[in-house]
């Protein structure tokens, strides 16, 4: 157990910006409040002038930007409002480019944007960090995918997406060194060789809902058997929620899952782990990673109150 925890701690510190490395256990999930929209002389949102500072990263134990997951819209929703969807995508791409300098465009897959990152390690770090902020994200090589939908509002969902990538890019570009970027790239290669990254499915359109539900129920039963922890009952397509009984336990489990190479995020006292019938058709890999996270986080069934 000692060696396993030492490996976790070393890996987690590699992922964190330097300012958090010796203090992440003290970070509190307390929000600084939300920045209001600022408008330029052209009447459009001046996304690049809105933030002088950001809340602590959710990865480090800070408050997630959203309380619940922001999901990509379905093809049915988009087809019903194609004009509005194009407007939302255009504004999201404009904002993302203003706050990050990265090129963004509509994805060929409905409900998503494609953001071009200069390296696989940046895309890999951002996808982990943005999901922890409770904004859906998916990575494929050097491309980061972010959600869009025709019902996204300027002051709500559009702002949520742009804030999440502004916040995480700020920490990646401004608070991590080139040497750390190399160390993170090396760590991702090691983690990938041990267990390929498990993400929630990028597109669920071709997979019947019953397949997700059956796999989610199986994973929930297996997790309850090994840990005694219960599913939340609040579900998202491609995710399983598990109640960890306290905020600090949920934060520790989230960290341990991400270091084990599975995306993970937190809503209050619960964590959400990906259920992916293509990448993990039996659920055995995600259950094994959850068991490992329980050991790391000290959440063994026989040691809880």
Describe the structure in brief.
This protein has 305 residues and is α+β, with helices and mostly antiparallel strands. 45% of the residues lie in helices and 10% in strands. Strand 6 (265-267) and strand 7 (270-274) form a beta hairpin.
Give the topology, please.
Elements lengths: L1 H14 L59 H6 L1 H19 L3 E3 L5 E5 L3 H13 L5 E3 L2 E5 L6 H22 L2 H17 L14 H19 L11 E5 L3 H13 L5 E3 L2 E5 L9 H14 L8
Antiparallel strand pairs: 1-2, 2-4, 3-4, 5-7, 6-7
Helix pairs in contact: 3-5, 4-5, 4-6, 7-9, 8-9
Description:
The chain is an alpha+beta fold and 305 residues long. The protein has 9 helices and 7 strands. The strands form 2 sheets. The protein has a 4-stranded antiparallel β-sheet, covered by helices on one side. Strands 5-7-6 form a 3-stranded antiparallel β-sheet, covered by helices on one side. A hairpin with a 2-residue loop joins strand 6 and strand 7 (270-274). The protein is globular, with a radius of gyration of 19 Å. The chain starts with a helix and ends in an 8-residue tail after the last helix. The model is unreliable at 300-305 (pLDDT under 50).
């Amino acid at each position: 157990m000692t060696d396993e925890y030492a490996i976790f701690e070393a890996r987690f510190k590699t992922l964190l910006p330097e300012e958090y490395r010796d203090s992440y256990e003290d970070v509190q999930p307390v929000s600084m409040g939300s920045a209001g929209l600022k408008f330029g002389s052209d009447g459009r949102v001046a996304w690049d002038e809105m933030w002088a500072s950001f809340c602590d990263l959710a990865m480090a134990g800070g408050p997630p930007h959203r309380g619940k997951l922001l999901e990509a819209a379905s093809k049915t929703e988009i087809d019903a409002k194609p004009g509005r969807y194009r407007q939302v995508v255009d504004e999201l791409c404009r904002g993302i480019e203003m706050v990050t300098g990265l090129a963004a465009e509509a994805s060929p897959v409905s409900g998503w944007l494609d953001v071009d990152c200069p390296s696989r390690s940046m895309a890999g770090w951002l996808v982990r960090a943005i999901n922890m902020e409770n904004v859906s994200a998916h990575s494929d090589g050097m491309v980061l995918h972010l959600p869009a939908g025709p019902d996204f509002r300027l002051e709500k969902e559009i702002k949520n997406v742009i804030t999440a990538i502004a916040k995480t890019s700020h920490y990646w570009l401004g608070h991590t060194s080139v040497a750390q970027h190399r160390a993170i790239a090396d760590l991702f290669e090691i983690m990938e060789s041990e267990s390929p990254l498990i993400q929630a499915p990028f597109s669920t359109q071709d997979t019947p809902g019953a397949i997700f539900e059956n796999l989610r129920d199986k994973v929930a039963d297996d997790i309850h058997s090994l840990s005694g922890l219960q599913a939340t009952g609040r579900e998202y397509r491609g995710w399983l929620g598990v109640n960890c009984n306290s905020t600090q336990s949920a934060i520790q489990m989230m960290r341990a899952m991400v270091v084990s190479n599975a995306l993970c995020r937190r809503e209050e006292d619960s964590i959400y782990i990906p259920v992916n019938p293509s990448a993990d058709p039996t659920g055995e890999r995600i259950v094994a990673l959850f068991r490992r996270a329980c050991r790391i986080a000290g959440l063994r069934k026989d040691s809880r109150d």
